[in-house]
Amino acid sequence: MNQPAKQFILTIEGVTKSFDGFKAINDLNFYMDEGELRVIIGPNGAGKSTMLDLITGRTRPDRGKVEFGRDTDLTALNEYQINRLGIGRKFQTPSVYVDHTVYNNILLSLEGSRSVWSTLFSRTTSEQRDRIQEVAKTIGLADRLEAKAGFLSHGQKQWLEIGMLLAQNPRLLLVDEPAAGMSDEETAKTGELLMSLAGKHSIIVIEHDMVFVRQIARTVTVLHQGSILCEGTVDEVQANERVIQVYLGRKKRGDTP
Ligand code: ADP
Ligand code: MG
Predict the structure, then answer these.
(1) Which of the listed residues 25, 50, 51, 175 should we mutate to test ligand 1's pocket, taking the one with most ligand atoms within 8 A of CB?
(2) What is the pLDDT of residues 126-142, one digit of tens each?
(3) How far is the CA of 133 from the centre of ligand 2 (A)?
(4) Do 163 and 5 touch, CB atoms closer than 8 A?
(5) Residue 96 contacts residue 54 (beta carbons within 8 Å)
(6) pTM value > 0.85
(7) 132-137: long-range contacts (C-beta < 8 A, 24 or more apart)?
(8) What does the alpha-carbon distance between residue 156 and residue 141 come to, in Å, rounded to a whole number?
(9) Which of 23, 56, 95, 105 is least surrounded by Cβ atoms within 10 Å, i.e. has the fewest?
(10) Does residue 18 line the site of ligand 1, with CB under 6 A?
């Protein structure tokens, strides 16, 4: 019997994306297994955010392949369709509804298609309430359900936004610099949260804080000038000559490797 071909949750192959002749992404190849928690690092301008834009349909590649699962061509779909497939993205700045409670923020994300008004003023089912409780527990906000999101700490807002993505039960979660602006304690908690989600979800985390990277990373991908410079464990990546060269002169405690 033939072995089935290995199935990646995400396949990026030969992808190039230029802005005014500048190759932000340059013949990029990237593969990720289902359930993996992958950390992407790289200097400013390396193309990290553009790579996420290419996955979510915010940007189209000039050429190359971006596939989800076995054979879903993401380059043929728009942002909304890609999100509906189960790809959720968390941007750097939290975008929660500050005047609504934690409970309603999660409720609003459970209901993709209905309007805010009809969601908040129709009866919730016990399944919905259970799901909201479950999500709130996962993100450590089970005792803040009635608090207005505007009163949460910066870290708690970030977790709520992750919870709003989880409410949609994404297969692939893209998280851009989740630890930015967080206290050390919040950063550590964020790491625990992301690690607890791996396996159930596939997760890409872009991060600068190497203490945090070391906490969560199994495989680290180093992006440089729109291509992969190196891939491996944190130790392998930090010992890699090319990586050291790229970061030389940038070395700073708690920052890039
Ligand atoms: P990173 O997230 O790794 O810091 P980005 O993906 O944001 O890097 O950017 C990579 C390069 O592409 C940068 O030089 C940036 O200026 C450029 N770039 C990104 N998006 C656009 C855009 N929409 N228009 C023009 N240039 C862009
Ligand atoms: Mg960026």
Answers:
(1) 50
(2) 889 999 999 999 999 99
(3) 32
(4) no
(5) no
(6) yes
(7) 132/103, 132/106, 132/107, 132/167, 135/106, 135/163, 135/166, 135/167, 136/102, 136/103, 136/106, 136/163
(8) 8
(9) 95
(10) no
